[in-house]
Amino acid sequence: MTADVIEKTRPVAPVTHVRQRAAVARWVRLALLILFVVVFLIPIYVLLVTSFKPLSEADPGQAWNLPQVWTTEAWSIAWEKLEPGIVNSFLLAIPGSLISAVLGSMNGYVLAKWRFPGADVVFTLFLFGMFIPYQGVMIPLVQLMVNLGVYGGIPGLTLAHVVYGIPICTLIFRNYYVTIPDSLIEASRVDGAGMLRTFWSVVLPVSAPAFAVVIIWQFTSMWNDFLFAVFLTAPTSWPTTVMLNNIAGAQTVPYSQQMAAAILASIPTMVVYVLLGRFFMRGLMAGALKG
Predict the structure, then answer these.
(1) Looking at CB atoms within 10 Å, which of 26, 130, 213, 265 has the fewest?
(2) How far apart are alpha carbons 56 and 125 in whole angstroms?
(3) Distance (Å, rounded) from C-alpha 47 to C-alpha 39?
C-alpha cells in the first residue's frame, strides 16, 4: 500500500514545479508590461503637469514637479492661438479623408473584382506612387497649384493630400476586396447588376473595416502634415501643425502653453483611433495572405 501511494504521488512534484515556473513567468511579464506602460506614460505626465503650471514654474528644471499653483491659463491661451489652425485642420482632414476613402474603394474594387487588360500594370504604377517623396514633387506641385488657381488655400492642400493618398488607399482596399468571394460578384451579374450596382449593393455594405483603416490613415496623415501645409497654404489657411510650430518657435518658449497646445492638437487623432480603432487591424490585415 505504501508503494502504491508513493507511486501515485510521484508526478505531483514536477507538476507543482511547472506551475510555479508558469506563475513566475506571468509575474515577470506583468512587471515588464507595467514598466513599459510607465515609460510610455512619462512624456504624457510631463505634458499634463506642465500644461497646468504658470509660466514662472514652467521650465525644464521643474518638469517633474507638480504645480505649486494649478492654473488653466496656458490652456486658454493655447486654444486662442490654435483655434484657427484646428478649424483649418478639420476643414482639411474630414473631407480629404472621406474623398480619399471613396476614390480608394472604387480603384480597389475595379482592380480586385473587375479585371481588365493591363490591370496588374496599373496596380504596379499605383504602388510606385507610394514611394515618391514629398520633397521631390514640391516645386512642380506649387506651380501646378498656382496654375489651377487653388494655391494658398485649404482646397489646394486637400487636393494634394487626396492625390498623394490614392496609392495607399487603393492598396488597402484592393487587398481587402480580394477577400470577398467572387461568387457574390458573379451572382450579382447573373441578377443583372452592373459594375456600379454591384459596388453599391454588394461591396460597400461589407467595406466598413477597410474604410476605417483608410479614414484613420488619411485623417492622421492630413492632420499631422507640416511640409505640404507650409508650402501650399497662406497664413490664413495654416493648419494646426504650423500654428503649433509657431508657438514652439517663440524666442521665449512658453512651455506650459506649448504643452497644452500639443495636447489639444493630438486630441482629434486620438478620438478617431478610439472610435474606429477596433476596425483598424481587421481591415489592415484583410487580404494579407490572399492579396
Answers:
(1) 26
(2) 56
(3) 14
4-7-12 Cα angle (round to 5): 130
Mean pLDDT on 187-194: 81
Rounded CA separation 233/249 (Å): 19
**Which residues lie below 8 Å from residue 74, measured CB to CB, with a gap of 6+?**
51, 52, 53, 54, 55, 58, 254, 256, 257, 259, 260
- For 199, the grid coordinates are 459596388
pLDDT at 13: 52
| Sign, CA torsion 32/33/36/42 | negative
- The cell for 71 is 492654473
- The answer, yes or no, to whether residue 224 has pLDDT greater than 60, is yes
Q: Is the pLDDT of residue 285 over 80?
A: no
* Residue in the block written with cell 447588376: 193
Task: Find, among 40, 89, 64, 53, the residue nearest to 258 by Cα.
Answer: 53
Listed in sequence order, the residues at least 6 apart from 165 whose beta carbon sits closer than 8 Å to its beta carbon are 96, 100, 104, 217, 218, 221
Q: Residue 32 corresponds to which cell in the numbers above?
A: 515588464
pLDDT single digits (tens) 157-179: 999 999 989 999 998 998 888 88
Residues in the chain: 291
